[in-house]
């Protein structure tokens, strides 16, 4: 059983091929995500990773690692504070901030940090249900 304050961390990195694959899967072909010439003309200066692709890391962890298999990912609120770029290493951190033992749910802080600089890139809160762990 998990308690308030329990946490979990993973590192991840996406390459441009994975971002291009996500364009195909999602149908989001915004050139900001794949076209270097287009992105160079924007405030970002180079292609950025889709926010939904970053959020997929949260889904993977919630369903497979923390709290893990058997979990139902009920909601996610995310604030994308800075752009994320391909081929950089990021650290995702998950911290249990509240538990409702009657409903077997927990609120989990979901954050992404730039591993090299330690800057907070994404900040959010998810809600998950797992009868065996909350």
Automatic annotation (TrEMBL):
EC class of the enzyme, as a word: lyase
Write out the entry's keywords from A to Z: Lyase
Q: What's an example of a GO molecular-function annotation for this chain? A: (3R)-hydroxyacyl-[acyl-carrier-protein] dehydratase activity
> Any idea where the MaoC-like domain is?
14-108
Query: Biological process GO terms, please?
Result: fatty acid biosynthetic process
Q: What is this enzyme's EC?
A: 4.2.1.55
Residues folding into a coiled coil are none
Q: Which domain of life does this protein belong to?
A: Bacteria
Name the PANTHER family on file: HYDROXYACYL-THIOESTER DEHYDRATASE TYPE 2, MITOCHONDRIAL, HYDROXYACYL-THIOESTER DEHYDRATASE TYPE 2, MITOCHONDRIAL-RELATED
**Protein name, entry field:** 3-hydroxybutyryl-CoA dehydratase
Origin species: Aquirufa nivalisilvae
The coding gene here is phaJ
């Amino acid at each position: 059983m998990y308690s308030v304050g329990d946490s979990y961390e993973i590192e991840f990195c996406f390459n441009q091929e994975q971002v291009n694959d996500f364009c195909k899967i999602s149908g989001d072909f915004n050139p900001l995500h794949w076209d270097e010439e287009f992105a160079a003309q924007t405030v970002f200066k180079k292609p950025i990773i889709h926010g939904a692709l970053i959020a997929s890391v949260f889904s993977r962890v919630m369903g497979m690692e923390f709290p893990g298999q058997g979990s139902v990912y009920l909601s996610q609120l995310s604030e994308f504070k800075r752009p994320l770029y391909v081929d950089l290493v990021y650290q995702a951190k998950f911290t249990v901030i509240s538990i409702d033992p009657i409903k077997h749910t927990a609120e989990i802080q979901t954050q992404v940090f730039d591993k090299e600089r330690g800057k907070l890139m994404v900040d959010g809160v998810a809600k998950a249900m797992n009868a065996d762990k909350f």
